[in-house]
Predict the structure of DNA-binding response regulator.
Amino acid sequence: MQHLLIIEDEPEIANYLRRGLVLEGFQVTVANDGHAGLAAAREQAFDLVILDLMLPGLDGFEVAGRLRAASEVPIIMLTARDAVADRVRGLEHGADDYLVKPFAFEELLARIRVQLRRRQASQAHDVLHFSKLHLDTAARELRVGERRVELTTKEYDLLELFMRHPNQVLTREVIYDRVWGYDFGGESNIIEVYVRYLRQKLEANGEPRLIQTVRGAGYILREE
């Protein structure tokens, strides 16, 4: 299930969007200001962000810039301001699309689907890099430095998820959903098993640990 983040300070609009998107099959998280939105983006992996421009504290331009500096997540900016200069500034700060209020929900939904399709197409032939890891997503091939590493299907899927969201905590629920496609339940240790398999392969020549456990939260790919 694709996970969307809505950063919107007006409760009526946020709830309207959340209800509609949930009915369309998306998982939705709502943050009511820029600081809460950035915190959510650090803690979870999102497929797309819907970002209001006029936010208390950090405005949408600042939030978009910080989100873009940390990831390539698609950003759709919402605003009541229709000036060309505002649209240009939003795009320059990292927004992928710009929608002026009031808008029809169907138009927002169409724009969301366009951005998600574009992201999937761009990811189809990526070569992902992190530290000494090089993951060719077209060939489904991993190299650690100059060493080629064989991965099973699920090992590959799990590592790709980590490498698409480096330095972000991935919860067990997110990992279950993205890698296995359903919830194994709280008693399953399958994630721990596959994380152990990956660590053994990535660290076979004494390389430093990159997949780290965040106690009580999940796992994160980061350099110590």
About this structure: The chain has a mean pLDDT of 89. The CA atoms of residues 33 and 55 lie 6 Å apart.
